[in-house]
Amino acid sequence: MTLTFRALLSACAVGALCSAAVAETTITVATVNNGDMVRMQGLMDDFYAKNPDIKVEWVTLEENVLRQNVTNDIATGGGQYDVVTIGTYEVPIWGKQGWLESLNDLPADYDIDDLLPPIRAGLTVDGNLLASPFYGESSFVNYRKDLAEKAGITIPDVPTWDDIKKAAAAMTDTEAGIYGICLRGKAGWGENMAILTTMANSYGARWFDENWKPQFDQPEWKAVMTDYVELLTKYGPPGASNNGYNENLTLSLQGKCAMRMDATVSASSLTDPKQSEFADKVGFALAPDMGLGKRANWLWAWSLAIPSSSDAKDASKAFINWATNKDYLALVASKEGWAAAPPGTRTSLYANPEYSALPFAKLTIDSINAADPTNPTVKPVPYVGVQFVAIPEFAGLATSVGEIFSAALAGQKTVDEALAEAQALSVEEMTAAGYIK
Amino acid sequence: MARAVTPRRKLFFTVAAWSIALLIFFPVLWTILTSFKTEVSAVASPPELLGADWTLENYSDVWARSDYPRFFLNSVIISIGSTLLGLAIAIPAAWSMAFVPGKKTKDLLMWMLSTKMMPSAAVLIPMYLIFQRTGLFDTRIGLVLALMLMNLPVIVWMLYTYFKEIPAEILEAARMDGASLLNEVLYVLTPMAIPGIASTMLLNIILAWNEAFWTITLTTVNAAPLSAFIASFSAPQGLFYAKLSAASTMAIAPILIMGWFGQKQLVRGLTFGAVK
Predict the structure, then answer these.
(1) HSE of B65 in the Cβ direction (CA atoms, 13 Å)?
(2) A186, A324, B214, B222: which could form a disulfide with A244 (CB 3.0–4.6 Å)?
(3) Which domain holds residue B149?
(4) ipTM surpassing 0.85
């Protein structure tokens, strides 16, 4: 009897020790589907080797579905997600709600001061870093050097909108299927409104004045819309109002867009001979300006954050430290080369001679540094955000305004009609939301 | 007097039927074809068909990146579970409505149907909170309940229509022979309504299999079915079309094959009672 009791006791003790030894924390990471995130999932062996006691479950969703699910979860304190992938739009809004955990206490090897200042500023609320950037991007101009040469023009590295207009006119050859300029025309706050809002910033326009009064009735917006519609109508591809990021990228890869202004992150595709036969003919330039001190380039970062409802904050911080550390960039480079390293987050990446030798590296960092989310416009504004306004109402409002402007591009209404409609809609929405008293 | 079917008319209707069928099937066909193209070939403009670069790489990538068997198993359990539970509730309900209708039966049927007209998003937050508070979030049983409740009006309505076609005298005869209510439903009514029940079952499995709003909203990891599997390959900028198509093909293939084999039963059930 005693022997049996002892044996049982020993078994219990061994069992308890074993279970303690293998006790692991499981964290659920909600992420979007893009090349860099997919690559990270393929490199998880490195994370598990360094953190054997943490298991990661992935929930990959389309951007808008992810935003909705994560918002539901955080707003109701559900705690389903331990790490969420969010953009620079959400961070200030969610941060003010107290939904995100501060990352100021990440280990010293995270090197918080190495983060690119504009990106860090966009992810910081009240002195707290609330999300760690996984990759960052701005927008710039890409063009076919051979077509520019053939047309006898030079596109400066730091162009003005006049340079862009002249270049678009000179390179357009519709009979040969070459379109002078491709810009997003598809309606959406992240589609045509991203381009139009940054264009507006460079023209001295703004979404709202200091009292949240919409500004579409101002002459600056009229100039923006007139030039945008004229550029795409005269020199853009047919059906430009249906073209978003992907359509214009495809046209550029096929060499049909002589020039395009869009995300810096597409540079690696444009210069990849496997994807484009014009890879060695691509030139880059900063987004244009009007000489008013602001360029038409945006700032975006997909970042990792911890919802305050997570019950595995320490394990989540360990994961974020691994995924957004300098060592991770070196890990990607060792497997797939420096061109594959997630861009736009760290100063040290651009100091690396191998990375800075890439054809798009310098202009990417210059573009990011030219964007200031806390001071995005020529005239003062009450909001932060470069190609967006960081208020919860913006996504819905900008998508509705985007539909109006896309209709103007399609010729279904005049520029004046579109601006009047956008103004009326914005005043109504902002009044209903309580911004206009 | 029926009009004679001339060979010319027959040819016309055959061509028309095939054209319409092809038109309806074309998006599925295009998805399947795209799943075998490279990413570059998938987004080529104008679209490539004969000159496309064909590959099986998308399938191997999708398989390597996701735990397909887990998503598949969840889909099977959720769709079959919600269907069986729905039938268990709907058969007695439809029996009572068809054979012992009350004054408000018609109103009740209309009310049940009207719940299907409500947009799902309207009850998103209450449903979300209920599932979280009751521990049903991200569980198979939670989704079985949600989908059963969602499809119950359709099941009741379909069964009610089939049951109405069965002469009440047969059930009455069974009762006179001493059959209990349970025996009457189980051994007389159910065997006679097998085609109707089978088609209801098939249709409900298809509806549950394809449901995407609640299955994506109310799950994260453990209970996520194939709808979430497809969503994980979707990107707003349209990146990875070929892989998304491969994931879609893998998700729809089982239900497509099931529908193919069950189409005779499905058509028979759906047209049951259409012509008297």
Answers:
(1) 24
(2) A186
(3) 66-232
(4) no
Beta-bridge partner residues of A285: A141
Q: Which two tokens stand for residue A293?
A: 């001190």
Per-residue confidence (pLDDT) for residue B272, from 0 to 100: 58
Residue count of chain A? 437
**Closest residue on chain A to B128 (Cα):** A72
- Per CATH, A25-130+300-356 and A139-298+374-432 having the same topology is answered yes
Q: A245-255 burial string, b = 16+ CB within 10 Å, else e?
A: bbbbbbbbbbb
Domain CATH code at residue B140: 1.10.3720.10
Q: Is there a contact between A132 and A103 (Cβ–Cβ < 8 Å)?
A: yes
Q: How far apart are the first and last CA of chain A?
A: 83
List A173's β-bridge partners, or say none: A178
Contact B239 A244 (CB under 8 A): no
Alpha-carbon span B130 to B213, nearest angstrom: 16
- Residue extents of the structural domains in chain A: 25-130+300-356, 139-298+374-432
Read off the tokens for A414.
Answer: 């005049």
Q: Which DSSP category does A210 fall into?
A: T
Per-residue model confidence as pLDDT tens digits over B202-255 = 999 999 999 999 999 999 989 999 999 998 888 765 567 889 999 999 999 999
Report, in this order, helix, strand and coil percent for chain B, each rounded to 5: 75, 0, 25
Domain A139-298+374-432: CATH superfamily is Periplasmic binding protein-like II (3.40.190.10)
Strand (E) or helix (H) holding A378 = none
Q: Is residue B81 part of a domain?
A: yes
What pTM was computed for the model? 0.80
Domains: count for chain B: 1
With an 8 Å Cβ cutoff, is A60 touching chain B? yes
The encoded tokens of residue B40 equal 């570059």
Inter-residue contact B71 to B189 (CB < 8 Å)? no
In the three-class reduction of DSSP (H, G, I as helix; E, B as strand; rest coil), residue A260 is classed as strand
Q: Is the pLDDT of residue A54 over 50?
A: yes
What are the backbone dihedrals phi and psi of residue A140, each rounded to the nearest 5 degrees, phi first?
Answer: -150, 180
Q: Tell me the C-alpha distance between B17 and A207, whole Å.
A: 54
Kindly identify which residue of chain B lies nearest to residue A184, measuring between CA atoms.
B237
Superfamily of domain A25-130+300-356 in the CATH hierarchy: Periplasmic binding protein-like II (3.40.190.10)
Q: Cα separations (Å) of A323 from A39, A46, A216?
A: 11, 10, 42
Is residue A371 within 8 A of residue A301, CB to CB? The reply is: no
Asked if B151 and B86 count as a contact pair (C-beta separation under 8 A), the reply is: yes
Q: Look at residue A14 and tell me whether its pLDDT is greater than 60.
A: no
Residues 6+ apart with CB under 8 A from A166: A153
Phi, psi angles (nearest 5°) of residue B105:
-60, -45
Six token digits for residue A34: 């893009």
Alpha-helical regions (H) of A300-393:
313-323, 326-336, 347-351, 353-356, 361-370
Q: What residues 60-79 of chain B have any CB closer than 8 A to a CB of chain A?
A: 65
For chains A and B, what is the number of CB pairs under 8 angstroms? 78
Q: Nearest by CB to A61, which of B40, B43, B231?
A: B231
Our measurement of the distance from residue A238's CA atom to the centroid of its chain's CA atoms, rounded to an integer in Å, reads 27
